[in-house]
Write a structure and sequence with these properties.
This is S-locus glycoprotein. The longest helix has 21 residues, at 397-417. The chain is built from four helices and 33 strands. It is 12% helix and 36% strand.
Amino acid sequence: MVQNEYLSVSKTLVSSGQTFEFGFFSTNNTKNLYLGIWYKSITPVVAVWVANRNHPLTDSAGGFTIADDGNIVVLDGSKNVIWSSYLSRSVVNPVVQLLESGNLVLKDGLSGDAASYIWQSFDYPTNTLLPGMKFGWDLKTGLNRYLVSWKDVNDPSIGDYSYGVELAGLPQFVLRNGSVKQFRFGVWNGVHYSGIQNLKQDEIFSYTVVINTDEVYGTFVHKGSDPSLIIRELVNEWGKLQRFIWDKQRMKWNDMSVLPRDQCDSYNYCGVNGICNIAISPPCECLRGFTPISQQQWSIYNWTSGCVRETSLECGSDIFVPIQGLKLPDMIKFWVNKSMSLEECNLECMKNCSCTAYSNSDIREGGSGCILWFDDLFDFRRFSDAGDQQLFIRLASSEGETTSDNAEKKKRQLLIKSPPRSWFINALLLFGRLLNHLEN
């Protein structure tokens, strides 16, 4: 589509491989019209991108065109602009094209490569992530690509839930309801997110995270021999992150995954310094060296108050105890140094009396970098296996002595419960002699 062409509400553009279609659609037979992109061969319509999601077209006389300044615009029947791409510069020879990837691009007609894209829908996602889309930040321009749910299943306007990459400290993917955190993937440690166990990358799906001085983003791609596979991710109207694959034989969408999965994925479910463990009932426990702030509240299954230290810290003589199999705490009060060793991290944390935990920031090649956490710790989850990353928790030195005493007590109890074999055999022999004596 070139400048001065006009796309009426009854006309569409189709990608070269017939996978995607671009034009106006309505939801649930309403009069509202939205300019968007959907799968051409799948019914009912599944929109993967919507332009005028907050400003529907309400009359059939409207349409879509490329304005004189090169912007792509939605016009109502009176030729008023109700949505625009809002380019900061004019375009001499603008061309709009719908790519087979589902990306709508505005480019200079004289060039065909991706570097010539002046605007693209992949940079402004709505509620859906498609293969090849970058999900995150362009640090050079400040562009932030994130998902926002529909208002409801029939209303694509801005909904309550958003899902994006937070840059504080180390990148974290976070789902929010308004401004309130609902779920986070955990800290990126160079290999995976600490809050997701067994995130499978199978023969049809591959997920990649890119972190450098120019960009911080995630993306997923197809892999394998079938390029026709249709996969999409979205944040839905109820605050769930879903991944679907299209089943061509049964003509239906199959669930690949859904997050949050259970109550332990709910943000900070067990309060400060508390750990959520889905394998036990009730699911909340305190970090080692901590006890519930309100035992009364915990007894009625209200864990929001969290946990507090059993023994006060002594600063210079404190110890650090390693724990594995935990989702690393949220980056609330923290400090990051990506060049430190774990030993240097320990010394740095020991010097600051408010430092409560530390860990490597990157677990590759034996581990490197340093994260320090200060004061209370938020949003722990325990996993069934030990995992590949240690978190070191600060405890009073007496807590270490208590641990040693407890270990010694258990050892003594074991000796009492399991006497030496020779003693047991002698006792049996003595009992046998006694029986023989009584019979005689």
